[in-house]
């Protein structure tokens, strides 16, 4: 009996702890049924309370050393492979594990030298020469060389294994053709090693943001040996060598990701925390409780700020809100009548009071959006877009053949079924009814169905959002080029596509910015396949007296290597 | 129940499990939306098709099912389509022990609290102590976990700071979730116990013992309790099955890495392989526990054994 108590049961311990455990050891092992046998072996009920207390004795727990920093990171990472990951929560971890030629500066979120110590750009803005750091090493001590970069990059555009997130590579000459199979030879793709340390990259067109993209997770340098040996399990079997500031110690689903400082990182001296736990929390109240009780130091996912409490939290010194490169907008299905008519789209846009939405519903410091590209990008100013004007909206609607909303067909407002989305939907529904006499029917759907409905163009009007991948307007404007799979409006406009193409051929400068501005004007003032509603605000909770190294910036890039806690946890 | 009968029961489980897996396999695939519908589209239709092909989702369903069965025989439930570095077996081996541990503790908690409460209610009938016990039982049964969890957190974790507000790092982390999960079942156990004890007090066996001059304490604990506990024993099987497979609400509120969260999310994420794998494991657990309870009956009760 006493030997079966969880306290002394080694299999029971496995349920609590995992520190230092090899993932490989866990694979294929029969399921641990810790504790299951006990109730059947009981002689009398009086041992029950005793057993219960035994089960709670400290000593059967313990999960390795206490971390220096605990961060509530957002939803559970679907993947930590740069070729598979897509979300922000994943990106923050991936960028700590695997570095690119450049890395993000923690203060302004811009690119700075990473695995490459320097680079030059040719006159025509299309040819980069990167020089790797001779001291760059994997966490196992092996040097990082150009062959590692080429392996990682060719892996992303491999025609068979190719990644879903390979679009940044399409800037490189023939990379897209290589992925689609029209170009077979690697020699024709614009990335080549001159020697072990020098890498030459040739772009299709000048792309002022290419150096910044080199810091973006999909372009990170990953370990060839590990991937070829373990295939899809390379991150969970053994310990994958890291090229970034941290190594992966442990990854338990819905539990935590534990990172340890990589002693061989080229800038190990600049890495502030040794052991970091990242928690995947999904419940905003739980996140806040963990923070308030001192079990976590930072909440940096805006979805984990309880929306009902935003107004109270905003008054606290540990609440931080900042401009963020993301936009909330509505999509019209322009293949459906009457939304094929730009006048109808403009009328519906003009009837929405965006200020009311950010002031009464979201309340987290968001700003009403007249245009799609969030403000603050260097060298670019968006057109003002349309502001609320119900009179003009009614006139446009009448012009389109629906005076006072008469004869307007029944239509749906489509959104993913979350309370926060529903609040916005109800507000917009009321505005359209009041100003235009149009009654939208609300059509909430669970997330996967919502995404499918949107990409299948099976909606009338659908709520949407987009987070920019890099500091350039094209990260938003490219979405609505004809044929882009993220377009999802059915809208295709020759002039718009031409403007984008022309801008793409220009080097950085006012001429390029002007072409992009013309394209955006077409998008948000005339054609309106989308209605921008507001620009998101980044929201975080951390005590400025205790936590250092988290700086507000437009991309919300907060490299883990810069973050640290002063003093012991409360 | 003879060994032969047990074997028969075990053999009968196979078609049941096959049927369950087939229905779930078909139903989850028939649901709108798929595992690879993402907010950020793939670069091309080809890339998306290649991904579907990698997981054989481009094949006819019957063929996919055949592939699934072939793997199942080897004990492999396949890769998760959502968490693509993990297999369903990985997830089960990480999360199931946690849920089971939570479940077993909540089970023990329910018995440890429920049995004395039930006895107190029966013994103290008509007196203040009985009324108190009755009220406690009513309270246990009527507060849902969704409310009780945050309430306990607010008072004992955020307010008093006695316990952690969530996570699953040490035994102390288990106290509040175990209480939240167990209290309702403690109420159920207490009610069964009270009824059982009342019946026992009314039985001739207890009357005879009382007539022989057995003391009140001994009467309750040595004579009435074993009889009074019978309904609780029969309830224990399904109760344990319920508790072992995890509770979405409690795991979600306390951020516990158990299987309950996966149960719900895998269906929402259209993680086909995960849904089928988890449902199968749940079904196996339920069937096995039912069998164990039936076997236990025959051991305990001669009427069933010879009936």
* Assembly level: heterodimer
In terms of DSSP E residues, the strand content of chain B is under 5%
Distance between the ends of chain A: 40 Å
Q: What's the rounded overall pLDDT mean of chain B?
A: 88
Class inferred from helices and paired strands of chain B: mainly alpha
| Percent range of helical residues of chain A | 25-40%
What is the end-to-end distance of chain B?
Answer: 10 Å
Number of strands of chain A: 19
Largest interface, counted with CB-CB under 8 A?
Answer: A-B, 84 and 81 residues
Low-confidence stretches of chain B: none
> Which secondary-structure class do the elements of chain A indicate?
alpha+beta
- Quick one: overall form of chain A? globular
Runs of chain A with pLDDT <50, length 5+? Answer: 1-62
Backbone CA Rg of chain B: 24 Å
The description of the largest β-sheet of chain B is: none
The fraction of residues in strands of chain A falls at 15-25%
Radius of gyration of chain A: 26 Å
Q: Tell me the major beta sheet of chain A.
A: 11 strands, mixed
């Amino acid at each position: 009996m006493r030997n079966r108590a969880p306290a002394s049961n080694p299999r029971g311990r496995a349920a609590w702890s995992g520190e230092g455990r090899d993932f490989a050891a866990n694979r294929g092992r029969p399921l641990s049924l810790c504790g299951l046998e006990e109730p059947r072996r009981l002689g009398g009920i009086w041992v029950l309370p005793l057993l219960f207390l035994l089960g709670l004795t400290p000593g059967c727990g313990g999960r390795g050393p206490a971390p220096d920093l605990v961060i509530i990171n957002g939803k559970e990472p679907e993947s930590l492979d740069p070729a598979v990951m897509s979300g922000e929560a994943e990106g923050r971890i991936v960028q700590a594990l695997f570095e690119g030629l450049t890395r993000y500066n923690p203060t302004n979120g811009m690119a700075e030298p990473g695995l490459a110590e320097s680079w030059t750009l040719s006159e025509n803005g299309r040819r980069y020469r990167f020089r790797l750091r001779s001291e760059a090493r994997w966490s196992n001590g092996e040097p990082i060389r150009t062959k590692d970069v080429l392996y990682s990059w060719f892996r992303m555009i491999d025609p068979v294994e190719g990644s879903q997130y390979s679009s940044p590579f399409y800037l490189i000459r023939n990379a897209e053709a290589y992925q689609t199979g029209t170009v077979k030879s690697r020699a024709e793709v614009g990335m080549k090693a001159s020697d072990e340390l020098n890498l030459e990259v040739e772009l299709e067109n000048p792309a002022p943001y290419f150096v910044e993209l080199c810091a973006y997770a999909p372009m990170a340098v990953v370990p060839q040996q590990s991937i070829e040996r373990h295939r899809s399990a390379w991150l969970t079997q053994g310990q994958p060598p890291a090229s970034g500031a941290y190594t992966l110690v442990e990854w338990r689903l819905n539990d935590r990701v534990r990172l340890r400082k990589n002693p061989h990182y080229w800038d190990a001296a600049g890495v502030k925390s040794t052991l970091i736990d990242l928690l995947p929390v999904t419940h905003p109240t739980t996140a806040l409780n963990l923070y308030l009780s001192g079990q976590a130091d930072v909440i940096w996912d805006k979805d984990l700020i309880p929306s009902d409490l935003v107004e109270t939290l905003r008054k606290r010194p540990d609440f931080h809100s900042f401009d963020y490169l993301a936009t909330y907008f509505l999509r019209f299905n322009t293949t459906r009548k009457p939304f094929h008519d730009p006048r109808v789209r403009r009328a519906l846009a003009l009837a929405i009071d965006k200020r009311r939405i950010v002031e009464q519903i979201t309340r987290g410091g968001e700003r009403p959006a007249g245009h799609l590209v969030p403000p603050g990008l260097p060298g670019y100013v968006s057109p003002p877009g349309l502001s609320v004007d119900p009179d003009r909206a009614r006139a446009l609607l009448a012009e389109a053949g629906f005076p006072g909303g008469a004869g307007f067909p029944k239509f749906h407002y489509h959104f993913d079924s979350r309370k926060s989305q529903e609040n916005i939907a109800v507000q917009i529904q009321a505005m359209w009814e009041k100003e235009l006499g149009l009654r939208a029917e609300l059509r909430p759907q669970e997330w996967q169905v919502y995404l499918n409905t949107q990409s299948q163009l099976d909606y009338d009007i659908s709520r949407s959002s987009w987070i920019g991948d890099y500091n350039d307007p094209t990260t938003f404007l490219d979405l609505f080029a004809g044929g882009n799979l993220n377009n999802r409006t059915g809208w295709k406009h020759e002039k718009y596509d031409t403007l984008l193409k022309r801008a793409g051929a220009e080097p950085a400068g006012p001429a390029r910015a002007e072409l992009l501005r013309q394209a955006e004007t077409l998008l948000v003032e005339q054609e309106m396949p989308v209605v921008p509603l507001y620009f998101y605000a980044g929201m975080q909770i951390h005590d400025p007296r205790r936590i250092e190294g988290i700086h507000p910036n437009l991309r919300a890039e907060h490299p883990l290597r810069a973050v640290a806690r002063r003093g012991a946890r409360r | 129940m003879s060994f032969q009968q047990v074997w028969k029961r075990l053999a009968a489980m196979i078609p049941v499990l096959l049927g369950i897996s087939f229905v779930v396999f078909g139903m989850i695939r028939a649901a709108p939306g798929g595992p690879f519908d993402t907010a950020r589209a793939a670069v091309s239709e080809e890339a998306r098709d290649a991904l579907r092909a990698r997981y054989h989702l481009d094949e006819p369903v019957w063929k996919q099912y055949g592939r699934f069965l072939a793997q199942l025989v080897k004990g492999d439930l396949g890769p998760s389509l959502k968490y693509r570095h993990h297999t369903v077996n990985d997830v089960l081996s990480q999360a199931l022990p946690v849920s089971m541990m939570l479940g077993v503790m909540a089970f023990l908690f329910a018995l440890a609290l429920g049995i004395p409460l039930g006895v107190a209610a029966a013994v103290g009938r008509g007196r203040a102590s009985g009324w108190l016990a009755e009220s406690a039982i009513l309270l246990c049964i009527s507060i849902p976990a969704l409310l009780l969890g945050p309430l306990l957190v607010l008072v004992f974790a955020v307010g008093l700071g006695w316990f952690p507000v969530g996570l699953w790092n040490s035994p102390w982390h288990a106290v509040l979730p175990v209480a939240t999960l167990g209290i309702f079942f403690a109420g159920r156990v207490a009610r069964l116990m009270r009824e059982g004890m009342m019946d026992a007090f009314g039985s001739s066996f207890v009357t005879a013992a009382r007539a022989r001059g057995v003391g009140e304490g001994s009467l309750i604990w040595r004579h009435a309790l074993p009889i009074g506990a019978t309904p609780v024993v029969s309830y224990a099987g399904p109760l344990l099955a319920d508790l072992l497979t995890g509770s979405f609400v409690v795991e979600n509120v306390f951020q516990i890495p158990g299987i309950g969260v996966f149960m719900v999310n895998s269906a929402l994420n259209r993680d086909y392989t995960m849904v089928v794998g988890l449902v199968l494991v749940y079904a196996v657990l339920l069937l096995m526990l039912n069998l164990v309870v039936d076997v236990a009956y025959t051991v305990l009760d001669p009427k069933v054994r010879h009936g």
